[in-house]
Write a structure and sequence with these properties.
By secondary structure, the protein is α+β, with helices and mostly antiparallel strands. Among the domains are: 1-154 and 955-1013, Rossmann fold (3-Layer(aba) Sandwich), CATH 3.40.50; 338-405 and 674-733, no CATH class; 454-602; 849-945, no CATH class. 67% of the residues lie in helices and 10% in strands. The protein has a six-stranded antiparallel sheet with strand order 2-1-4-5-8-9. Helix 7 (171-182) packs across helix 26 (852-875) and helix 10 packs across helix 23. 25% of the residues are buried.
Length: 1013
Amino acid sequence: MRIHRLTLQAVGPFPGKHTIDVDSLSANGLFLLEGPTGAGKSTIIDAVVFALYGGVAGGESSDDRLHSDHAAPDAEPFVELTFSTGAGIYRVWRSPKYQRLKKRGGGTTTQNARAKLWRLSHVEDAGEPVSAQVQEVGTELGRIVVLDRAQFTQTVVLPQGQFASFLRAKPEDRRTVLQDVFGTEIYDRLQKRLAEMARAARTELDRATTEVTAAASAFAACLEPVADGGEHTSSPSVTREALLERAAELDAAALTDAAGEVCAQADARAAEAADARDAAAAAEATARDQLDAQRNLAERLRRRGALLAEQRTHEAAEPAVRAGTERLQLARTAAAVVPVLEAHERAVARVSRATGLHSRLLDQARTGLHPDLADLDGPDALREGHDAATGALGALAELVELEADLPRRRSEVEAARRAADLAGNRVGELEAAVAARPAARQALEDALDQYRDAGARRERALGRSRRARECLTAATGAEATASQVAAAEEALTAVAARAAAALDAEHAVRLRWVAGMAGALAGRLVAGEPCAVCGATEHPHPARPTPEHATDDEVAAATAAREDADAELTRARARLAALGEKAAALHEAADGLDTTEARARLATAEAELAAAEAAITRNAELEQELSDHERETASLQERLAEHRSTAASLRERCEHLARQLTADEARCAQGRGTTSSVAEYAEELRGRARTARALLDATTELLTAREAVREAEERLAAALTAAGFADAEAARAAVLPAAEQRELDQRIQRHRSDVARVTAGLAEDGIAGLTGTEVADVPAAQTTHAEAMAALTRAAGAASAAELRCRQAREAADDLLAALAAHAEGTRRAAPVLRAAALATAGEGNTIDTTLATYVLLRRFEDVVAAANDRLSLMSDGRYTLERIDEREGGQRSRKAGLGLRVRDHVTDVPRDPHTLSGGETFYVSLCLALGLADVVRSEAGGVELGTLFVDEGFGSLDPGTLDAVMTELGRLREGGRSVGIVSHVADLKDRIPERIEVRRLPSGASTLTVRC
């Protein structure tokens, strides 16, 4: 993957917008990212990681490290990165979650994280949108970049100091680091899973074995003695002890044979018992048939006697039944005449009622309001009188209703007049209210003019408050840093003294070493061989070593002590310089104020801000009051127009109702004639119509009743003649009530049914053949059947018991054979699991005594060491190589074999413990190990080619020669178009690398950057 361009805004210490053209910056392969400690160099790397993964390099929340506290309130923080991989060229834009100003009103609100992704045809292309959803962008980038965030930060950013500790770590700690880097915990999980599966397999086999033993014990219970001919015997060739012994040995063949033999014996006993049960059942059936025959004979004899007795009773009742039949026939004949008799009686009663009613109505008419109606003769005259009254009444119907509604209408006219007056009054009130609205509006506008610039005043006050808070923070930091500067100066003095002492000690040791060189050379002379100095073969007076002679180890130790002291002095000076620079920057950022002055400025600014906030609130309240005033004015004007229209409508309606009322009162006065009202006149007509109708109906009913009597007398005479009765009284005497007829008919039918039933019963085959002399012996037959039933019960019990034992034996045998089959299948399935678990956990069959997880780490560690040695051989000029050993560093055996390290010194051909390396040697050996690990991780990630690499290491511990070797090796990383960014503040690197990104602090405490190509 190659990075082409990076743009960031309002991120970390950078409040402004900055664009880094990485293609131009890395044209020569190397570029430098330099600046003072804490200025924001790591923020640039965090921005790259955040653009790709939505989080920073260290894994912390992006909200905590990305959003700039120095940016303007309306500045949106974002990172935009253009990069390319084998999948193409892409541009990603991300904005973290942050607090922004509300678009309306005061305060802030949370803006959620956002992301966008484009695919480009070239770097300067506008691009084709791929996605604008945060989750989708993350998914697409995972497919495009291939590396996850952990692998990316291990291969693109090499963290400072981490692999120096890895070089010197114990094998156990080194194992943890390698597991984290390569993700080999999957092999640990696999190893543990195999062990769990092996334990489960063993448990399952133990359970299967237990089931075999339990099934054998259950089957052995079937070997208990069984009843056979009244004697108890046992299976002759299969014993309980032998069966349980074969089960303990899991002898499937012997157990199968025993199961078959026992089941065969049980089948034979069950068959014998079944034959005995069948014979007993046949004898019981014969005895039961004989008992049924005797019971049937007894029942037939009893029934014959009962039928003969009932027959004699029916013969005695026969005369009474014949008399009842004749009486019922006469009543049924009279029943045909009864309806005619009743109709004649009803006709006579109707004539009597009609005559009485007609007389009463004539008397009432003669003494009432309409006596002339009593003199009218016949229905036609009465009908004419009724129709005349009804017609006059119909003509008055409308006037009656109109007269009844006049009081309500008079009240309605009065109410309409009052409503019109009220509407006119309301119109006057609304006109006065509308006239007063403009003056109130002008007063609100005058008050609002005082707060028009409240927003600008708040922004100015907010800026002064923010700046005052920054000054207070900087002043507080400046006071704290001043004490740190004093402590750093004291520490520098002490470290400088120790460095001078170490230099003097090294100089003294080297002088002793030079002074003892003669003794050392003389110790190597051999008689007859030339001297390395003068060439002579004779050595008459060789020098002798002096007691104060310094050895090479002492010189090396003194040199290492001096180098350590120099390194400590360099760090102390750098710390003092950084603290001094920090103190100056904080003092400048505080505008030269101390904490007391800064707090006073902050209090003043916060008071101004509070006043501005109150002005904004009052401005909003007045604007709302003005808006409410305008809305109420419009509402009043609408209501005034409505009330004016309503008042006019009410006046017009009042006049209309009054005109209609006057006209209708005149019509009613004309229609009532000589009466006091139309209703009284209508009631008089209604009474005349009722009297005429009643007389008409009574006359008509009297004539109709007289005709009905004549017709009823004719039908009665014809019915008596047809029924054979002399007169109506004879017919009435023959009538019986319906209930008596039903009861008499039921008795006759019941007698005839009983006679037929008795006759049919005596004629049945089983009854007709009897003479009455037969005898049925039921008790003897019952005794014989009881004896046969008892024998059958005994035989059936024996057969059931034998069948149960046979079934139990077969079920127990099936369970035993199933348990044996399950054990065999479980053994077959468990074998590969147990074998794999033993190999993975260094158990039986693992000849190298190494677990699976350890074996994988060994192979990866060997790859890392090989990759590191490719670079170490060049950086050390062929002197050092790394070797993997099974022991701990220092010669102790490691519990986690194979992860030890030692350094091979090819000058002395002596292995060295990594702890004995000097500071500079430790740095470049650790760097080689880090780069080797990065190469292996990159290959593990699918061979992803990284076009851009950042090395974040401390180069200050290297001497010029080693620094040249390291820079040469880093230069090799750019072969094939690879660019390397070095993150450092070492001054010598500025002369070596002209292309760089300079990060500098501003007086405000914020930072800015400059790209120099």
